[in-house]
Amino acid sequence: MTRIFAVAAILLLAAAPASAADAWRFGASGEFAHDDNATRGLYDADQRGDSILSVEGSATRSTPLGARSGALFRAAAKYSHFTTFDDLSNLSLSGRAAWRIQPGTAFSAPIFEIAGTLDWLRHADSKLRDGTIMTLEASVGSHLTDRTRLGGGFAWDKRNGGDPGRAGEVAIYDLDSTRLWANVDYRFGTRNTAYARITQVEGDQVFNSVTVGGLTGAWATDPAFAAELGRATDSYRVDSSTTIFDIGVNVALVRAHSLDFLYTSYSSKAKEGTQNGNKYSGSIIRATYLYRFQ
């Protein structure tokens, strides 16, 4: 674990000596979240909530590529501690590169972005979930007024998980899905922002249960929730249709400090298997403190 944190520190701090000249910006955040269906269970007997404490450090750099375009690079290290399901506590190292262009010069001229992200995940004791997530996305945003901005985008996510190493079981966190979203931001006061987003996800999700079995042939036993549910869950990779609603507000404090409050509602409906048409749902509340060093 010491080596992992050393790698994270190198990613975030290697550019520090040249930060002023190269326009690096550094940030840190601390977050509290509560997920009322952290087990992603189908039925009441399968569902348990958990609270998560997270800290993150990041480094971001913007580079002009032309009169109307530029590149954005971001590296981050995030640690999340699950207070009940400690096996799910994890370290995430991520890198993101994006190209942006605004062809027009009018105030409301849209800004287009193409981006790629790679996340590396290592959990406290859940090899099923260890692995990487690769994302490719394209998005567009435009200001309607000096206070209102609309946006939307499309993304493809590919996750590679761990092999359970047991006969008949598969790497259920090998997931493939697409996302389509639309969002609106509204600035109020001097620097405060209210925002909302709706996201539609099509593709693989993991359903966990101790009450029903045989959902699909892509399954594995998962001991991560055993202490609360009484035994290891039967966990399934299921082709699903998932809808996510986000609504939040970012409140600017003094200088580079801000608070962010977010409510998320999610619902995932199976499109295959013995539970075709059934779904799990839940909600997450988050409160985040953010600080930008530069």
Write the SSE topology.
Elements: H1 2-13, H2 19-22, E1 24-35, E2 50-64, E3 69-82, E4 90-101, E5 111-123, E6 131-143, E7 148-160, E8 175-188, E9 192-209, E10 219-222, H3 226-229, E11 233-252, E12 257-270, E13 279-292
Antiparallel strand pairs: 1-2, 1-13, 2-3, 3-4, 4-5, 5-6, 6-7, 7-8, 8-9, 9-11, 10-11, 11-12, 12-13
What does this structure look like?
- The protein is mainly β.
- The chain has three helices and 13 strands.
- A twelve-stranded antiparallel beta barrel has the order 1-2-3-4-5-6-7-8-9-11-12-13.
State mean pLDDT (0 to 100 scale): 92
- Termini, distance in Å? 29 Å
Q: Any idea what the radius of gyration is?
A: 20 Å
Give the % helix. under 10%
The major pleated sheet works out as: 12 strands, antiparallel, barrel
What can be said about this structure in brief?
With 294 residues, the protein is mainly beta.
Features:
single chain, 294 residues, mainly beta, 12-stranded antiparallel barrel, 3 helices, 7% helix
